[in-house]
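Risk register update: the risk of archive-format incompatibility is retired. Evidence:
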Amino acid sequence: MTQKPVYEHYMKADERPPISKELLLTKLVGTWLNTNPNSNYLARLLLSERDKRLILRAYGANEPHPIDWGEVEAIAYAGSNLSVAAGFHAFYPLNGNKINLWAYSALGVLVIQIYVSYQDDSHRSSHFSREFFRLTS
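Archived output:
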């Protein structure tokens, strides 16, 4: 009789054990600069913790003065370590348009996917971009 391998470390996403404390946000908190100085999307991000919530202030690419998109609350997500935030999602309703940001941190780089949906009468097509950011402080 052959023995079946046991995969104790494997579980479905919805079978993750509950945690009894809030996610640690420290891995994400700080000022992040886009690694592409010629980006058409975001120049920098400021992530801060306020009242155990993750707060995002994004700055749109515009030289010499990036455009302040304002502050929004971001929803933090755990990665493989269930107690440490490794990514987030945030939503910006800018000028009647919808901008969703999805991000995750890997090897010291913050990878952000930007999804833009135009809600005005410009007939522009929705689009997305992927940007890479490095932590400066």
